[in-house]
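Q: Convert this sequence to structure tokens.
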Amino acid sequence: MFHQADAKRLFDSRGYTGATIHNQNPVHLLEKPVRDRIIESYYWKEQCFAVNEATLCDRAAALTFIGGTYGQQKPTPFLCLAMKLLQLIPEKDIVLEYLRQDEFKYLSALAAFYIRLTFEAKEVYGILEPLLGDWRKLRRRTRDGGYALTYIDQFVDDLLTKDRVCGTSLRKLPQRTVLEDLGVLEVKESVLGEELEGLDDDEDQVVEVEVNGGGEVYLSTPERNGNGAEHSDSEG
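A:
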């Protein structure tokens, strides 16, 4: 009972004097109905009591899925630990260590979610975009209580492009192109774009044509047949 009452006092904005994120009590980055369901949940009461930055790793390592709420609005352990992080407000270096360690993928996903909630836009893009190449599988708890397969790169893409993830309304994130125009972010180079430019360069090469006295045509650059072999028009 003490833990529950203490939690409710912490989540009350009246008279809050602790550290703030985006000029507000950090736990208020989650909507009030979600916060209320979390502090009433069994997982919060039993697994999130007296947890610190170190022991939270053990809880996150034991996670088997991500998600928001399911069934009759029951919060997932993933969402409970996200609120615990908002309560702890760990140092940035600790959060980055959570994100970049390779052993526990659900800890990485939890850190990515926390970063999206709490970091500034420039940092969000700079830190999370490298994970768009991370194809580790994740299980996601759906609202009907079932499970769906997703991947870390897809989860991160959702964090960067959607306004609601894991049953949580996210703070508005400016589009990347807007930040590029403002000079906040460097223009993102596209690997596909470089390949297309290379193809355009090949097509732009000038082919010189020579006609001999017999009317035969010679190309100064080799053509390729359907099998990729070089040939010229002078071949029989």
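The beta strands are 69-70, 74-75, 137-141, 147-151, 164-165, 168-169, 209-211, 217-219, 223-224, 230-231.
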